[in-house]
Design a protein that fits this description.
It is built from 9 helices and 2 strands. The protein has 186 residues and is mainly alpha-helical.
Length: 186
């Protein structure tokens, strides 16, 4: 997680430096600031939250949450990796959605921050501890590269279920791929 935070913070600092520092142009053309991946996913525009009537949510967060939730459901049906989530699946099967909601909120926060959102923080476990059953009793076993590949397959399916275009799925995939060294522990 420290390595990911370093990479993400370095990328954010580079982005912010480029966005804030004026360009040295003789013709005084205005600088064009590239949108973050979060902006591309919907950004900070407020929209009605379909899961919480009467409340508003940033469109980018809603899009990310929709992909996260869809991906969790895809994983639940994927025999390649659903065994890692026995605790969660048992809870959901018995009608207890608290673990699902906690996981959804944590992953949504994580992806909001990782894609450039400014209004959220990630306070969950670092990726190494979150995927280590010795540190996270909700995780059943350590993953290998095949498991991580299966997760990426499921993430793509969840993104496609929500209509994300291939170029954005590719950007999200590249971001997730940076986590492989922390998630794969066997």
């Amino acid at each position: 997680m420290k390595k990911l935070l370093f990479v993400l913070s370095t990328a954010v600092l580079c982005f912010l430096s480029a966005a804030v520092m004026p360009a040295c142009k003789e013709d005084d053309e205005p600088m064009v600031v590239e949108p973050t991946l979060y902006d591309t996913l919907g950004g900070t525009a407020l929209v009605a939250d379909p899961a919480n009537p009467g409340k508003m949510i940033e469109k980018g967060r809603l899009g990310i949450r929709s992909v996260v939730d869809s991906t969790i459901f895809v994983i639940a049906g994927d025999s390649r990796i659903n065994g890692f989530f026995e605790v969660l699946l048992g809870e959901v099967t018995s009608g207890n959605l608290s673990g699902f909601q906690t996981l959804s909120n944590s992953l949504t926060d994580f992806f909001c921050v990782a894609t450039g959102a400014k209004n959220f923080t990630y306070s969950g476990m670092n990726m190494v501890d979150a995927h280590n059953p010795a540190k996270n009793g909700r995780m059943k076993g350590k993953s290998n590269n095949a498991h991580f590949d299966a997760f990426i397959d499921d993430l793509v399916k969840g993104a496609k279920q929500n209509g994300l275009p291939d170029n954005i799925i590719g950007q999200v995939g590249a971001l997730v791929e940076t986590l492989r060294p922390q998630v794969v522990q066997q």
